[in-house]
Design goal:
Length: 70
């Protein structure tokens, strides 16, 4: 069993989300709340490029109108 830090979890999750993988290693999909938690984490670290990318992904993934028209 490996002990991983919160920082590692957020960075690994962001990397997966950025690559278009919207689920964890156990194949559980990331919820909107979790993605917003990742966004808040990067905002607190002042990594705004990641924030912009993540905000766009959240909007596209959870916007009913956008997904309906695809």
């Amino acid at each position: 069993m490996k002990l991983r830090s919160y920082d590692f979890l957020m960075n690994e999750s962001f990397s997966r989300i950025k690559d278009g993988v919207y689920f964890d290693k156990s194949f559980n999909p990331y919820s909107k709340k979790f993605m917003q938690d990742v966004l808040e984490y990067f905002e607190s670290r002042e990594k705004y490029e990641e924030c912009i990318l993540l905000k766009d992904i959240i909007k596209k993934r959870f916007d009913h109108e956008y997904n309906w028209k695809r």
